[in-house]
Amino acid sequence: MPTLTSKANPRFKDLLVRLRPSGARRQASLLLGAKLIEAWAEVQNTSAGKRLRPAMWLRLEQMDSHPLEATLGVETLVLGEALMRELADAGSPPDHALLVEVGPEPAGALPPRILGAWGIQDPGNLGAILRSAAAFGFQEVLLGPGCTDPFHPKALRGSMGAAFLLPLRRVDALRPDDGHWYALDGGPGAVALAQADLSEPLRLWVGNEGHGWQGVDLPGEVQRLAIPIQGVESLNAAVAAGIACYEVARRTPC
């Protein structure tokens, strides 16, 4: 199989064009590395997993083929190291990558337990938030304004497969329903996590890494929720989300 080595190659340029859009305009992404591809393959028939459809296998030059190449039945391109590194945007190029098409967002009523991310800008932080949501039994993640792209290759890698397990949808505002709505925030009037009613339906939100909920007009139905800390000013957004998600799971009967 011939190896693509030139950045001027039309096939490679087409890949770059397909991967350029981000956010709500994204229609394709990359699963980087065999481990992440295998994690998606295990759940590809679930409702969340079906949102990503395999389109093309990318293999680093001189690497052996992967069993999933034949199973998925998609075209394989062999790329030189420089081209694979550019696609992956990483210092060390992966041996394998899978180009996937990103399907439409889910619609319909919200499930009983959701986690929301508002203005999370770092792909690694968003990936970690998705991992906590999946690990502690949340059923969907909402992405508010300013949130980074959950299907950016770095966010997918940071989620370690959690992005394949949960429905993800974007919202442009907080529109409280009859559930318990909380915004993680230690400001005045916040209720301590230990005293909060975390029963379902639950809508738990984490704010921006730098300024939290500053400048956001929270609806009256959204209560601020504090995690007691000492010795530091604040927690990392992903850490705070993980602690709150664990507390929800701890109180939920098996």
**Shape assignment:** elongated
Overall SS class: alpha/beta
Distance between the termini: 52 Å
* Strand order across the largest sheet: 8-7-6-11-9-12-10
At CATH's second level, what is the architecture of the largest domain? Answer: 3-Layer(aba) Sandwich
How many whole angstroms does the radius of gyration measure?
Answer: 20 Å
- Return the string of H and E elements: EHEHEHEHEEHEHEEEEEH
* Count of distinct structural domains: 2
Binned, the helix content reads: 25-40%
The CATH topology annotation of the largest domain reads as Alpha/beta knot
Q: Please tell me the overall pLDDT.
A: 92
Fold and architecture overview:
The protein is α/β, with parallel strands linked by helices. The protein has two domains: 3-102, 2-Layer Sandwich (60s Ribosomal Protein L30, Chain: A), CATH 3.30.1330.30; 113-251, Alpha/beta knot (3-Layer(aba) Sandwich), CATH 3.40.1280.10. The chain has seven helices and twelve strands. It has helices at residues 10-19, 34-42, 67-72, 81-88, 123-135, 153-159, 237-251, and strands at residues 3-4, 28-32, 52-60, 75-79, 96-102, 113-117, 140-143, 168-170, 180-184, 191-192, 202-206, 222-226. The strands form two sheets. It has a seven-stranded parallel β-sheet, covered by helices on one side. It has a five-stranded mixed β-sheet with strand order 1-4-3-5-2. Strand 6 (113-117), helix 5 (123-135) and strand 7 (140-143) form a beta-alpha-beta unit.
